[in-house]
Structure formats: structure tokens, C-alpha cells
Amino acid sequence: MTWETVIGLEVHAQLATRSKIFSGSATAYGAEPNTQASLVDLGYPGVLPVLNGEVVRMAALFGLAIGATVARRSVFARKNYFYPDLPKGYQISQYELPIVHDGHITIELDGGATKAVHVIRAHLEEDAGKSLHEHFAGLTGLDLNRAGTPLLEIVSAPDLRSAQEAVAYMKKVHQLVRYLGICDGNMQEGSFRCDANVSVRRAGTEPLGTRTESKNLNSFRFLERAILFEVQRQIEVLESGGRVVQETRLYDPDRDETRPMRSKEEANDYRYFPDPDLLPVVLDDAYIDAVRRLLPELPDARRERWTRDFGLKADAAEVLAADPEVATLFDSLARESGQPVAAANTLQSQLFSLFGAERTPARVNVPATAAILRLVADGSIARSSAKELIEEFAFSSAAPDLQQLVAQRGLKQISDTGALEGIVADVLAANPLQVEQYRAGQTKVLGFLVGQIMKASGGKANPAQVNELLKMKL
Amino acid sequence: MPPLPQRPTIAQLSQALAARQVSSRELTAAALARIGAADGVLNSFITLVPELALAAADQADARLARGEGGPLTGIPFAHKDIFCTAGIRTTCGSQMLANFVSPYDATAVERLAAAGIVTVGKTNMDEFAMGSSNETSWFGPVRNPWDPDRSPGGSSGGSAAAVAAGLVPAATGTDTGGSIRQPAALVGITGFKPTYGRVSRYGMIAFASSLDQAGVLTLTAEDAALLTGAMAGFDPRDSTSAELPVPDYASTLGDALRGRRIGVPKEFFDAGLEPGSATALREALRVYERLGATLVEISLPSLSLSVPTYYIVAPAECSSNLSRFDGVRFGHRHAGAATLEELYKKSRGEGFGAEVKRRILTGTYVLSAGYYDAYYLKAQKARRLIADDFRRCFADVDVIAGPTAPTPAFRLGEKVDDPVQMYLNDIYTIPVNLAGLPGISLPCGFSGGLPVGLQLIGPHFGEATLFNFAHVFQQETAWHTQLPPALTAGAAVGAPLGASDNGIAPKGAPTDAPTP
Amino acid sequence: MKLTRQNVAQIAHLARLEIGPEELDGVVEKLGRIVEFVDQLQLADTSAVTPMAHPMDMSQRLRADTVTEADHRDLYQQNSAAVADGLYTVPRVIE
């Protein structure tokens, strides 16, 4: 019996605003408990929500980036349920009329094929606070700093057919929201997380099986593990004659399993209705056009441009496009140096290994690095010298006088034919055996002779010129 | 300058203050003394703040002495206990909030304070504004100054009784289905509910967010215009606050009514209206005719849908609004709950009274799976029909006139066991809230010795028109100056209004709450 | 639709309201009358009527994304009966 896996994802992206969705509280991560919980966030009697315009702009930007409809009119609704981290007893969300609907996100499959995943909707809502169960014996502590943080919930159709596809999709969404600058993508801090709706059906059959929802998957690996576990579990249930129960489950990374959530045991009746404290969000064409003009170049478009205009190889383009900061850095280096291929090589072979928490791509000294790449290109310095200089200056804030440094440190390549000819003659005279071998047709020894010449020049000889001279002399 | 009348209006007090005939401290101390003497019976206040009030009065006097005062500076005043007041406990008439001290001021409170008004205390009200008789208050019912065995109406019954008895010249109220207009009618004063969105709801503890509106209970339309002018206007903290300029209401108060058109809905004079009230109302309409206005019979065919529509929409919104009272961050908390569910159920079960629970249950029911379309959605559609009725009528008339309540003040205890009878008491006021329109109730006569209220309804943001119509009427009649028996009996102001004889004792002694 | 004790118990649970056994019959009876009363609405013809969620025919205003709230935790927590280490507390919840 073969089974087909059917997966739909609900991705929650915390929008990177300064203040909360309905209050003027800060959204910064890691503050002391409840110090960023204002009267509105605490659901105090009498206070009212006022919508942060930036979340609307960010949601619209996302909608345009995935070719979705940005609703001219969307409505906030209340989702009513009692839970201690939900101060008002309802979550303000969007229900019948979300701000974004019907877009798609294209993922790459093995073997170069692609698949367009339907995004049914993306809606705005407020995040809940945090329940801390380990802090006190017998008590749950509540930190409501996170309550009211803006979320964009991105809901896919059940279009994904494997854990691998689900991970590829989640990665693509992650890349996209970071490119758009609407989410910091920090999964450890919970800024980007997802719930997976998973079901299985017999291969070749149409109706969907009963699904379960695995919640709070905050890493690509947990998503993959939770799906693999859930698929296996469901198949075992079905093959042993049982029925899959529709339920909410929690993935436990320590035990690498999902289990039913106690707090979600009873059937939900959320009693959604339009929030009478908020009016419909109405966006006109002028607003949407203005947002459209803010759309950055997206990863797929960048990769295409780099392979087409810069002659980058597909895999190099993919690596450089993966992260928006790296992509932006590459574009700047390519533009300033005029040497896109050299810039791509330098990024991959040298800068990637230098990046860290402090040394981020955004902090690279682009003018200095580009100037060093230009010195290599015009033959002024050797690659080895360039590597040293980049090591020294890529993350410095200085604007080094490179001409002077090259002169001071004697890094200038010897391109003077007269001086080189002398060195070549000396090396040939000192290695008669290799000269003989070359002349006898063993051309491989040319490399050895070039190496000797470079060594004799202290690494400053221009390798192209050395090759040329050698061939002439031999 | 003539001596102040026994129950002076804000306009009269303001003149006396400006002329240095009296100080705010004297007015405030006198108000506190009257309350101290009368409120043991009336029970119109939940909390008094004598020290804060006298300090505010001294500031007002200093301001007046510098010539910086306005028409409201130094006027003793009371807030319905639904408005959050920083440092003063705000109970909403509920055990749930019996010890709640708001850390902030409602916008209406803040604006009136900025105008120099002197708050002497917080008035009694139906619990969470859910009631039409003030009998659902956890702090005990309020008595009607015209007859202490009768209800002053609700939910702003404390404000209404306090103003009618001359304890304070005016007070705030809130009106979700008639909670300003109906008590104003039942105690013979003026009650004004602005257009939805005219006065900020920020800091008003929500009952039903799409219906709630802050307003005032006063002795005259002129005073209502003055107070509304100070409270109204855009507030960035309320998304439903209208971004419209506030007109100078005083400038049009006296405009002639010649040629203006008054719509009289035939459904308003159907069988449900008590005959004595109908007589008084017809006489009031003749006053308008004498003033040159034209009466036009109109029809509100969907009127009968109003009360059932309201009793779906309002409970639905309240069931959600009151979910925040869970015993965790503020409000009554059941001690010793072993589980979260027990904490929730017991805190809420103990903290809320019977009527509030009924409304939460009704609202939960009409929103629940399988019933939403039949009840909530149906009510939203009926609401549109009701609003459309008014819109059609206002194409042809300037204001709509009719009764505020179907009967004069009823006896305490009379309707308390029959929620539906109690709900029907608001038949004439509820449609106005459903449509979001402004409305005012004016004293227009008596039936069986009890005051009768005339309700005028205006189009959206037609406040100036309503104040104009109401003021001109009050220039022409003296109903609004009639004093309740205890005041006319010549008793020193503040004497008890009659013995408490039905065993209903006020709870919760008024006190200054600790300042956080 | 006639409300039963079971219906009311279920609604009360959704609303997290304790209704004591001695209260229940009275609540069922009064709620039943209210529901019967609002059921009148079923007779109204509302076909082709657009629902009206709100009396204001305006759209939502958008606030600038600026932080305007300072930390007032101590003040705000004075109204809570159960605070420890800056956290609000409730009986232990098992997820």
C-alpha cells in the first residue's frame, strides 16, 4: 500500500515594526517581563485598539510580492477563547475578509523542476503573550510583553506533498519576508514559526484524509521531523484499521515526536465576529501603487539577472541570493568593482568565512573591498596580496589609501618586462633539467618554472606576463 | 446679580463664579454636604472624593482669580462610574471591579478636567450599564427623587437622580440603548446622547462597543451643549472617533424654528405608550407648532425589530468585551482556585451579577457555531433596515420627535423578575443607538405626578440642531425647572428625601480610594 | 429553538461562568424567554440586505509606527491579586 502525504502550512511571521499592532508599546525582544505591556496590551477596561499603519504596508508588500490580491477592504474580527496568555479573552485577527488572498510561491524541487504553491490568504493578527510553566511550582507565570506584537499569518493550500517540499516552501517564505524587510526571520526568538496541517491518503485517491495540526514549529528541522513523525504515525494508525483523530498536536524536539495538546482538547467555538472597536481597512489604488513602488528586487529576479548580465553560474547565483544582506552586498561589490565574477568568488571563498554575529554582510566596507578587487583586475596586485588586504580592511571603517599601502608594503606586481626578463633568464639558467624536459614535450613542467619565477619575485610577478615570457624564451 | 435658584444650572453657576458671587470651594463644599445629607436615601453615588474635589475647587478658584477660567471652571460635577478616573476607584457598578483603581483617565474625564470642572464623585449605575432601572448595581438601587419607591431608570440612574435632586448640576452618562435618555425622562431632567463617534469612548468601560456613546445629564439643553462642546471631538486613542470639527453649539442655540420640519413617527404613538405620557407629548408637539415648526407624520416600519435586534447585538458584543474580566490582571479573583478553569469560572461567577451573566450567556449563544447566521447575522441585517428607516426620514425632516420611554418611572422591583418587560422599556431609545444617531430627552410634562420625557432624534452629527430645538422649547416652557417634592417642600437642601422602607440598603460605603 | 439545561451549561462553559446548580433552572427559564423574544426577528424579511456591523460609515485610521508607551509595570500590576517576579500568575497550565 502506498500513501500520499498532503501538507498545508500556516506560517506566522512577526512583522518588524517598532511598536505593536494596536498599541504604542515597543516590540523589542528580551525585555524584562511585562515591561512592554501597555494598558491596551493588558486588555485594561476602557482602552481601545488603534491600528499601526506600518503593518498594513508590510502586509500589502507581501501580497504584491506573491502576486496576490491586496484587498481594497479588509476587516478585523475577534476570535474568542479563554487562555491566560490572551489578555482580552479574544484575539484580534482577520477572518472573513483578510488583507491578502490568492497568491503563489514557487519552490524548486529536486532535478530543477518547480512547483507553484497556492497561498490562500495572509491575514494580520496580534500575537499572544508567553506562558512560563517552569518558573514557579504549581503556577504558570504570564509575561505579556509579546501580546499585541503584529503577526502576518500566511496560509498555504494543501499543495505540499512531502516534508522536503514543506521545508522548501517554508524556506522560500522565510527568504521572501526577509527580502521584503517585513520580518527579521529570527526563528530562535520565535519571529518566524509555523503550524503544519498534515494528512495522508491512499495514492491515487481524491478525498483528503483527516488532518492533524502540529503547532509551533520554530525551525526547518523541527518542521521536517514533525511531518515525518506525523505521516508515519498516521499511516500506522490507518494500516492497523484505526482512524486519524482531527486534533492539535505539539512537537516535542527532545523526544522527536508529536503529541496531542491538552489545552486544545475540547472542540473550538471561536465565535468570530467583526471587532466593533475597529473599522474596515480601506486601501485605494494610489496606496497600493505606492507600496508597489517599494517592492525590492526579489531573489528569483536577482538570480536571473546575475546569470544573464554577470555570467554567474546558477549555483553561485543561488548561494548569493539566499540571504538578502548577502545579495545586497554582492550587488554593491559587483557594481563598485566592475568585477562581478571576482566579487562573487571573493564572497564565497573568503568573506563567507569571515561573517559572524558582529561581522555582518551589511557591515562590509564596500568601497575598500571593491577597490582591492579593482587592483587585482588591473594587474596592480596579486590575488594573494588582495586576500591579505581584504582580510585587513573588509570590516574596518577606515578608507585606506591603497596606492600608498601597495607601495609601502611592496605589493606592486612586477609587470615591467625588463625586470621580469632578468628573473626568467636566471630561473631558466638555474633549472636546465626542467628546460630540457619542457622542450622534449613535457609541458607540465611549465607550472614548476612559473612557480620558481613567482618565488624569485617575492610573489610580485604578474603571472600572466610570466607565462607569456616563459613560452617565448622556451 | 439675582441670588442663585435652589437648583441652579451650570450657566447660572458659571455667571456667579465669574462675578465672584460665590467660590468653587463654596459650591463644592455645598454639593458634598447635600450629597452627605440626601444620598443615604437616594444612593446616587458609589464613591465620593471630597479631598480631591476641594483641592480641584481651590485650583479652579485660583484659575478664575487669574481670569483664566472658562464656563465650566469650578463647576461641581459627577462622573458615571463607568468612566475610568486615575487614582479614583472605578467600579462600573460591579463587584467585579469593587476595588479597581484605574491607572488612567478616560478622554471625556480628561477633557472636562482640563476645562476646570470639579469632580465630586462617581455615580451609581446598573452593573456594566446593563439595566434600565439601576436595580442591577452591586451597590444597590438608586431611588427616584420624585418618589423614592420608584426607579430613576438606568443605567445612568445615579447621575440622573443626583442631578434631579440638585446634588450636582450635571453629570456624565453613557447610552447604549437609552441609558442617558430614559433615566433623564424618568427624573425630569435633560439627557443628551451624541452621535456615535462624536465623543471618544476611550476610558469608558465597554458594554457594547458599536452602540456605546458618552453623553451628559443636565438641567437644560444649554448646559448639555456647553458640556458636549468640551467633551466632543477627535481622539486618536479611539479608532471609532470621528475626525470632524466640533461646531460652536452655543452660537445656534436660539435660532428660530420657523419653517423647520419635525417628523413624528406614527409607530411611536402606538398602543404601548402610556396615555398620560401621550397627552403630555402631544401638548409638547403643539408647542413646536406654535414656534413655527411643521409636524410631519412619518413611519419607521422596522421599529418593531429594534428591541430583538438590540438584544442580539448588545449581548454579543458584551459577551466578548467582558471576557477580559478573568481574575488575572485586575478585578475580582476567586481565592484558592486549584485549576485555571476554576479560577475563571468562579471569579466570573462571583464577580458578575445575574443580569450581566444573562447577557454574557445570550451573547455567547447568538455567536456560537450553528447560531451565528440565525441570530447575529440576522440582527446585523435588521440593524441596516432600522438605520435605513431613519436615513429615509431625515431626507425630509430636521428632527424626529416622540416619547423617550413608554411609561413614567416604574416601581422598584416591578420589572426586575421579567427581563423581557424590562428590555421593552427601551423601545423608543434603542433604535437611535442601532443607527448611531444623536438623541436628547427633555422634560415635557407630567403623568400621575411623574415626569414625562420628550425625545428628539437628529441626523448623524446633527447635535447643533438638537440643542437648538431643545433650547427653544425650554425657553418656551418651564417643565425643566420643576423640582422634585423633597426640594419643593422647602426642606433645607440636602434633607433626607424619605425613609427607606423596602429594605434595600446601599452597599459599599463611598470613600476615597487609595491613589496608586 | 428551546434552550435546555444542557445547552445553558455548555454556553456557560464557553463563557467561563460558573452557574451553581441552584441557579441553573432560573437561568434556563429567563434565558429561554430572552431567546424566545429575540426569535421574533426570524419573521423579518432581510433577504438582499447587507449586514451592518457598525454605525460609522468610515474606514480605519492608521497610526504611525512609533513607540509611545513607557514601562508602568508596577502601577499596572497594583490591580492584580497575583503577581510574582513581575509575572502575573495563574494555577499551573498543562499544554
Description of the molecule:
- The complex is a heterotrimer of chains A (474), B (516) and C (95).
- Chain A is α+β, with helices and mostly antiparallel strands and 474 residues long.
- Chain A has helices at 53-65, 163-180, 220-239, 285-292, 299-310, 314-321, 324-337, 340-354, 366-377, 383-393, 402-408, 417-430, 432-439, 445-456, 463-473, and strands spanning 3-14, 69-70, 73-74, 76-80, 90-94, 100-108, 114-126, 130-136, 139-143, 150-156, 192-202, 212-217, 248-252, 257-260, 273-274, 281-282.
- Chain A has 15 helices and 16 strands.
- In chain A, the strands form four sheets. Chain A has a nine-stranded mixed β-sheet. In chain A, strands 5-4-15 form a three-stranded antiparallel β-sheet, with no helix packed on it.
- The longest helix of chain A has 20 residues, at 220-239.
- Chain A is elongated, with a radius of gyration of 30 Å.
- The model of chain A has no long low-confidence stretch (mean pLDDT 92).
- Chain B has a single domain (10-234, 250-304, 381-488), classed as Alpha-Beta Complex (Amidase signature (AS) enzymes).
- In chain B, helix 9 (306-321) crosses helix 11.
- In chain B, the strands form two sheets. Chain B has an eight-stranded mixed β-sheet, with helices on both faces. In chain B, strands 1-3-2 form a three-stranded mixed β-sheet.
- With 95 residues, chain C is mainly α.
- In chain C, strand 1 and strand 2 (87-91) form a beta hairpin.
- The longest helix of chain C is centred in the first third of the chain and has 18 residues, at 21-38.
- Chain C starts with a helix and ends with a strand.
- The chains are: A alpha+beta (474), B alpha/beta (516), C mainly alpha (95).
- The interface between A and B is large, with 29 and 43 residues.
- Strand 9 (139-143) of chain A pairs antiparallel with strand 2 (87-91) of chain C.
Helices and strands, with pairings:
The complex is a heterotrimer of chains A (474), B (516) and C (95).
Chain A: E1 3-14, H1 53-65, E2 69-70, E3 73-74, E4 76-80, E5 90-94, E6 100-108, E7 114-126, E8 130-136, E9 139-143, E10 150-156, H2 163-180, E11 192-202, E12 212-217, H3 220-239, E13 248-252, E14 257-260, E15 273-274, E16 281-282, H4 285-292, H5 299-310, H6 314-321, H7 324-337, H8 340-354, H9 366-377, H10 383-393, H11 402-408, H12 417-430, H13 432-439, H14 445-456, H15 463-473
Parallel strand pairs in A: 12-13
Antiparallel strand pairs in A: 1-10, 1-11, 2-6, 3-16, 4-5, 4-15, 6-7, 7-10, 8-9, 11-12, 13-14
Chain B: H1 10-18, H2 24-42, E1 45-48, H3 50-65, E2 76-80, H4 107-114, E3 118-123, H5 157-164, E4 171-174, H6 181-187, E5 190-193, E6 214-218, H7 221-231, E7 261-265, H8 275-290, E8 294-298, H9 306-321, H10 340-351, H11 354-367, H12 373-394, E9 399-403, H13 419-424, H14 430-435, E10 439-447, E11 450-457, H15 463-476, H16 485-488
Parallel strand pairs in B: 2-3, 7-8, 7-9
Antiparallel strand pairs in B: 1-3, 4-6, 5-6, 5-10, 9-11, 10-11
Helix pairs in contact in B: 2-3, 5-6, 7-15, 9-11, 9-12
Chain C: H1 5-14, H2 21-38, H3 73-77, E1 83-84, E2 87-91
Antiparallel strand pairs in C: 1-2
